[in-house]
Design goal:
single chain; 54 residues; mainly alpha; 0% strand; rod-shaped
Length: 54
Amino acid sequence: MLPMAMMPMISSPLSGRVTARTGPHLAAWTYLAAWMGIALIGMLFTRTGRAAEA
């Protein structure tokens, strides 16, 4: 959700070129968002796991 909201801000200077490539651009943003979410969840789980062990 956050990348979707940030996309217009970031791509506004390139709006002319990006409009023709909205599909790949959107796919890249969703891919990045998914990666960030997975990494964040992984970090949280490892931290809670270590805390539970200790």
